[in-house]
Specification:
This protein is α+β, with helices and mostly antiparallel strands. The protein has a domain of about 110 residues: EIF_2_alpha (Alpha-Beta Plaits). Helix content is about 65%, strand content about 10%. The protein contains ten helices and four strands, in the order αααβαααββαβααα. The chain has a four-stranded antiparallel beta sheet with strand order 2-3-1-4. The chain is rod-shaped, with a radius of gyration of 37 Å.
Amino acid sequence: MNLENKENTSLENVENATALNPKALLAFEEEETKETEIDLVDMFFALFDKLHIIILCTLVGALLLNAFSYFFIKPTYQSTSKIYVVSASKDSVIDFSDINVGTSLTLDYEQLILSYPVLSKVSDSLSLNYTMKDLQSMISIENPSDTRILNITVTSTDPKEAMDIANKVMDISIDYLPDTMGSNTPNVAERARLADQKSGPSYTKYTMIGAVIGLILSCAVIIARYLMDDTIHSAEDMEKYFGVAPLSVIPENESLDDGEEETSQKRKRKKV
């Protein structure tokens, strides 16, 4: 009980002294800020000391993800067919002052091209084994700004399949859209061609992602080990954590260690 009373009394005295003396409070806050800054500096040097490990982990991460993208991700190919929208109705040509192709007509075409009636006919015609959701994810519709062109782009791991699907979607859409929208038949602007280059994956992108992952993980591990390390490494650490300056520091003597090793070896020889 007496110890608790003494501790409470000492805490009250510190609080009262701080309240009566604003300079003491300011000095205390400055000391805390200084300690925080020192910790950040120490953390920086901890990272700097392990710079070779950070660089190694960054390179390993980049190489691993690059190899993963090269060996385990199938390359993809894209083919694009183009439709030219002639008119919005059967009796008139599109008037840009009345109809915004980019926002209204194009959105209608996009929804209808990706609709079940169109894609089911495409799937049946080409004998595809994709679900409707998978087939929709392979097709993208784009309307370049200030044009009446619709780009139908298909992405597939088979370049011929990508070309066939793009052309078949265009052909069926040209027959289906006029009846559904009550408009004139769109024209074929360009048929899809066989892709001669891969569209993905991007090895550069995967390499950069791997490098970033390796960098972050290595820094995180080093910082975690630094924060969890409560070992006293120097006299400065003793004074910093305990507020006590050591009276003396005994340096490490390598010759003593060598002498101990020689003595132990001699003892082993005698036993033998």
